[in-house]
Amino acid sequence: MIRNPKDVLVSYFHFYQIIGCVGNFDGVTFATFLEMFYNNELMFGDWFDVVHGYWNIRHKANILIVKYEDMHRRPLEGIRDVARFCGKSLTDDELQRIADHTTFKSMKVNEQINQLNGQYIRKGVVAGWKNHFTVTQNERFEHWFNKKMKDSDLRVDFCI
Question: Residue 133, exposed/middle/buried by CB under 10 A (0-12, 13-18, 19+)?
Fold first, then answer.
């Protein structure tokens, strides 16, 4: 699953604040967190390295690239693509049941998924980054993003 890096950063920022295994992030500002991202100081590595790694092998038979924004826009089509990739054929009823079960609202109330006292699943929106990035932060990120992506044909949706 590829998600636009601005929304990933916002989700990651909130995730860091609720899990204890990465240290105490209470009081850490988004600006500080963004600097940590630029300096590759966050767990799980650099978004660009991870995404480019999979994007570059996307044509292999055992790799399926799914974009969060596409699943958000067209969930039934996305579910059908994943099922097809797994060699499964689903009826329209089965597709709809899966779509209903995997809505953000459904997952938010599912205690098996939304752990950490119900904080693990936060909003599930596309373009939530607009509520966190300042104009200056966004301009810097856009410049950095374009530099990192200059040799890639991957297109990322920051809004839908």
Answer: buried
Residue 115 in domain = yes
Does the predicted model carry a pTM greater than 0.90? Answer: no
Q: What digits encode the pLDDT tens for the residues 74-89?
A: 999 999 999 999 999 9
Q: From the DSSP assignment, how many helices (H) and strands (E) are in the chain? A: 9, 0
Structure tokens at 86: 């797994």
Alpha carbon distance 72, 98 (integer Å): 14
Residues with Cβ < 8 Å from 19, sequence gap 6 or more? 116
Q: Enumerate the H helices of 19-134 as residue ranges.
A: 30-38, 47-55, 68-73, 75-85, 92-101, 104-109, 115-118
Q: Per the domain annotation, does 155 fall within a domain?
A: no
What CATH number corresponds to the domain at position 11? 3.40.50.300
